[in-house]
Design goal:
Elements lengths: L1 H9 L4 E5 L5 H11 L2 E5 L3 H8 L10 H10 L2 E4 L10 E4 L14 H12 L5 E5 L7 H10 L11 E5 L18 E5 L2 H12 L5 E4 L2 H32 L3 H8 L23 H10 L6 H27 L8 E5 L14 H11 L3 E5 L5 E5 L5 E5 L4 H7 L2 E4 L8 H7 L3 E3 L14 E3 L1
Parallel strand pairs: 1-2, 1-4, 2-3, 4-5, 5-6, 7-8, 9-10, 9-13, 13-14, 14-15
Antiparallel strand pairs: 6-7, 11-12
The protein binds nicotinamide-adenine-dinucleotide (NAD).
Nicotinamide-adenine-dinucleotide binds next to helix 5.
Length: about 450
């Protein structure tokens, strides 16, 4: 059965299904379809399904023309009907793995998707989990539901693996197609089948010895980033106390050709990965009576950054004899990083919330985010809309806070027109240095 499936995967005869068509799932589905597989994307979000069926895209990295071409050729289709899994041979699961309000992992999307898949499992299938999660999830949660409860034997008549997605939204040089893909199976046979599938569509596949190694590798990558960002954020706090320019310090250190990797401070962590994934690891370790100290510390520093930024705004206004309460503050950039529209976990949301708590009159501008919907989760919600006229808003603000350094902004013009700027990203570069109306992180 293994060899037959590998042959069908190599020949692109196996039918592929991708569960979850978000930032990870849609690009992956497109990569499989472009490689020659017939792919069905399954997502309970009917608006996403309808958009794909119309040959359009809702993800900046996936051009609509590509979706249109693949849909028209019959290579790509989308549905919210999970019974499409009946025809699938190879299934990739790309559902969200957020945190609960308590900070604990929320595996409900993985469990729901696996329960749906379990109804349609049949011999000769390969299933790969892509969602970032704690080590052990594939074996402890997916395997019993997909295998034992269906009378299927893993590594013999069905194959199960974990392969972490490494997509970096907005990035052009490293994409789903050319970023090396780590694959680790529940058994050696599972690794072989999953690696054969992915190698039929993705340029470089890196097989590892188990699903747990693959799960943990992803957490090492993201924990590495989280901790280094925490370190450089603390550097910014320390440089501030010392009266030293942290940006110049970082640039100087980065001239070392070896043994140093440049990270930059900012208003806090954002996105669906870096602020969240390491907490999956620390949660798992807590259950084993181990405290993941670096993660906890970095998380504490990073989550404190929005408050620190608000303190900087308060100080900058204070130097002009103005209280934060009642002042008009323009937040520039709401997305969690430049040149994308993703608002998830964005520190801009915390900065806006904290400014409002202190009585500031807050407006924001973001060319990619026309509207922000705040939901407290307690029945309270509010909406904000990006100001229509950027430069008019810059001129009328008592303080402009650069939170996300989108490359489309004309920072020279913003600086010229603003009364006061707090630059959390060094977006103004040397223009912001030694400028009395600029406060830098
Ligand atoms: N966004 C990134 O940059 C990124 C990078 C690497 C890894 N990841 C990881 O990949 C996973 C997916 O992230 P994402 O950014 O694509 O999330 P997303 O929210 O953009 O997309 C997830 C999709 O899954 C759908 N979904 C929810 N429940 C489902 C179910 N039961 N069955 C099928 N579909 C379901 C949702 O409707 C949504 O369209 C997460 O674990 C995340 O940590 C994300």
């Amino acid at each position: 059965m293994k060899q037959n499936l590998i042959t069908r995967l190599k020949n692109k005869e196996a039918r592929v299904a991708v569960l979850g068509l978000g930032y990870v799932g849609l690009p992956l589905a497109v990569v499989f379809a472009k490689a020659g597989f017939t792919v069905t994307g399954i997502d309970p979000d009917q608006s996403k399904v309808d958009t794909i069926c119309r040959g359009k895209s809702y993800i900046l990295d996936v051009p609509a023309e590509q979706v249109a071409r693949l849909v028209a050729s019959g290579r790509l289709s989308a549905t919210s009907d999970f019974s499409a899994l009946r025809q699938a041979d190879a299934v990739s699961i790309c559902v969200p793995t957020p945190l609960r309000k308590t900070g604990d992992p929320d595996l409900s999307f993985i469990v729901d998707a696996t329960d749906e898949l379990a109804k349609y499992m049949h011999p000769g299938m390969v299933v790969v989990l892509e969602s970032t999660t704690y080590p052990g999830t594939t074996r402890e949660i997916l395997l019993p539901k997909l295998g034992n409860e269906n009378g299927l034997k893993v590594g013999e008549n069905f194959f199960l693996a974990f392969s972490p997605e490494r997509v970096d939204p907005g990035r052009q040089d490293w994409t789903t197609l050319n970023t090396p893909k780590v694959v680790g199976g529940i058994t050696q046979a599972c690794s072989e089948v999953a690696a054969a599938w992915y190698a039929a569509a993705i340029q470089t596949v890196v097989p590892v010895s188990s699903a747990e190694v693959a799960e943990m590798a992803k957490l090492l990558e993201n924990t590495f980033r989280m901790i280094n960002i925490g370190l450089v954020n603390e550097m910014a706090l320390m440089c501030d106390r010392l009266g030293v320019d942290v940006w110049e310090v970082i640039d100087a250190a980065a001239t070392k050709p070896f043994g140093f990797m440049k990270f930059t401070p900012g208003p806090g962590l954002g996105g669906h990965c870096i602020p969240i994934d390491p907490l999956y690891l620390s949660w798992k370790l807590r259950a084993l009576n181990y405290t993941a100290r670096f993660i906890e510390l970095a998380s504490e520093i990073n989550t404190g950054m929005p408050r620190y930024v608000v303190g900087k705004v308060q100080d900058a206004l204070n130097n002009q004899g103005k209280p934060l309460k009642g002042s008009q503050v323009l937040v520039l950039g709401a997305a969690y990083k430049p040149d994308i529209e993703d608002l998830r976990e964005s520190p801009a949301l915390d900065v806006i919330g904290l400014l409002e708590q202190k009585g500031a009159r807050v407006v924001y501008h973001d060319p990619y985010v026309p509207r922000i919907h705040f939901d407290s989760g307690e029945g309270l919600s509010a909406e904000m809309f990006s100001v229509p006229n950027l430069m008019a808003a810059v001129k009328s603000a008592d303080c402009v806070v650069i939170v996300t350094n989108h490359s489309s902004y004309d920072y020279g013009a913003i600086l010229d027109s603003a009364r006061l700027v707090v630059d959390t990203r060094n977006a103004l570069g040397s223009k912001g240095r030694d400028n009395p109306k600029v406060t830098r992180l």
